[in-house]
Amino acid sequence: MAQSSVSTSTQVVSISDRMTAGILALLVGSFLIFGAGFAHSNVLHDTAHDVRHANGFPCH
């Protein structure tokens, strides 16, 4: 029987890189939540409709 070995490695991520990623995630998430919350319903429907077409899903 062949034996396989698994090599694990860890990478150290600096605190400034983690803070940058966290702030970017917060900004994107806030934009999505508030953008969807204050958009008119027809805008959201049209956007979802266009995304379905772009991904090749039938919608009618």
Core attributes:
60 residues, mainly alpha, 2 helices, 63% helix, 0% strand, flat
Strand content: under 5%
Number of helices: 2
Residue runs with pLDDT of under 50 for 5 or more positions? none
Structural class: mainly alpha
DSSP, total strands? 0
What is the alpha-carbon Rg in Å? 21 Å
Q: Please give the share of residues in helix.
A: 55-70%
Overview of the structural elements:
The chain is an all-alpha fold. It has a domain at 19-54. Helix content is 63%, strand content 0%. The chain has two helices and no strands. The protein has helices spanning 15-38, 41-54. It is flat. The N and C termini lie far apart (55 Å).
Question: Secondary-structure blueprint of this entry?
Answer:
Elements: H1 15-38, H2 41-54
